[in-house]
């Protein structure tokens, strides 16, 4: 199927209420008890209809970003959008990704279903193993490539040209331009500067994508698909694998490897306005190489020492947090199980043994587990709604959207199932002067007295 055939009429498809409802569910998955998600959910229908109206009338503007730094594995400036804007991005992603994903090469592993870092590492390691068995294995070389500051240096004009090549929908081009060309927030870095060294006043508006956006992940794959096609169809490289802005290539002959390296560097600079990182290098194909967080050799996949040190520090922090009651037992075990899973997919026997010997969950002696734990595992999800008669309704634990067919309009609508306690006097002395404090202190009792209602 031609890619343009799949990306016609995107305005109707993205703005469709069913698509917006699905986008809300995807955006809220595993996050539905956060305050911003609760606020959005309690007025779900109105919020989705307002998003639909703004998109159709082309008045939608991206909201403010929350900026913070992630220090591991290296300093990165992450920009997080509010929940409302994440719903919009999911609505776009749900419609364009099924079609764009079909055009990507098999060995592009970043942010794709059934791909990921482990699959990328296993692919490259299998090629290393294959090369090591050849009689001329010593003649093979590996190009370890990295695009310098990719998310901070990608050119907005060239990115929008890539989107223009995938669809003839003018409304869709407008929407992507609103998201990428944000006049209020600079995403880009000047050449040679690091994220944690660059003050906001020096950031650039015409380059860069915010790390943390769902559309940034899709854009990264779409834009670098040009590099994939160049390597596969023009340079005719058989052993080529890419994970976002990192790629590895196996080539026979050092001179051929140098020629390929130079050709890719020229293509990135001339066609994509990007630079290859100084960390990129050419090495023996069977020598150990670090890729997507693993250390790969023909004999297997191992964890880097940096990774093992991070796991030990993280698990020590989990044990300390559990000891002082900051996290629950389930949350602590969830972290441990994730790290155990990482070890089982590589040669991580020593790390597994360290976890078995050192990971112990025990409360501090001066804590009473039953009395010191707040009701509801310390989480309180409620909203107080004022009424015209001076009383209030307390809405607790919003649930999933429940489909309901409207006989008058002939369309599917949605109700939200909640637990509620209605007709409460906020000034009643039994609350001890603060209704909200009483709810937090006696949350379990409020849940037991609530009734199931729909809003």
Summed up:
With 455 residues, the protein is of the alpha+beta class. The chain is 45% helix and 18% strand.
Task: List the topology elements.
Elements: H1 3-6, H2 10-15, H3 17-28, H4 35-42, H5 44-56, E1 65-70, E2 76-81, H6 83-100, H7 117-132, E3 140-146, H8 150-153, H9 156-164, H10 170-180, H11 214-234, E4 239-243, E5 246-252, H12 254-271, E6 281-284, E7 289-291, E8 294-297, E9 300-303, H13 305-323, H14 329-344, H15 349-358, H16 369-372, E10 382-386, E11 392-396, E12 401-406, E13 411-424, H17 435-441, H18 443-449, E14 451-454
Antiparallel strand pairs: 1-2, 3-5, 3-6, 4-5, 7-8, 8-9, 10-11, 11-13, 12-13, 13-14
Description:
This protein is α+β, with helices and mostly antiparallel strands and 455 residues long. 45% of the residues lie in helices and 18% in strands. The chain has helices at 3-6, 10-15, 17-28, 35-42, 44-56, 83-100, 117-132, 150-153, 156-164, 170-180, 214-234, 254-271, 305-323, 329-344, 349-358, 369-372, 435-441, 443-449, and strands at 65-70, 76-81, 140-146, 239-243, 246-252, 281-284, 289-291, 294-297, 300-303, 382-386, 392-396, 401-406, 411-424, 451-454. The strands form four sheets. Strands 10, 11, 12, 13 and 14 form a five-stranded antiparallel β-sheet that branches. The protein has a four-stranded antiparallel β-sheet with strand order 4-5-3-6, with helices on both faces. A three-stranded antiparallel β-sheet has the order 7-8-9. A hairpin with a 2-residue loop joins β7 and β8. The longest helix is centred in the middle third of the chain and has 21 residues, at 214-234. The radius of gyration is 26 Å and the shape is globular. The protein starts with a helix and ends with a strand.
